[in-house]
Give the backbone structure.
Amino acid sequence: MSWIAFIILGLIAGAIAKLILPGRQGGGWVATLILGVIGALLGGWLGGLLFGIGYEDFWSIQSWLIAIIGAIVVLLIWGLITRRSGSTTTRA
């Protein structure tokens, strides 16, 4: 798969992950789409490393599942990071 197709897959996977995992992750939609690309990359790398699977082509269901699962994992981690850093308040 070409890099442009990979980026498009990651952007769409980020949007789908946001629909599956609604909530208040910091950064809005732009950050979600960027995290989707990162999640697709992470999912592809871990899928290849652990299970010997990877991205075959753009329309493969395997590619989409790997990218969406990776995007969900990255969004969960991002939500934990932003929630933890945003919950600290100072009292006077």
Notes: Residues 22 and 75 are 10 Å apart (CA to CA). The chain has one domain: 3-83. The longest helix spans residues 61-86. The chain is about 75% helix and 0% strand.
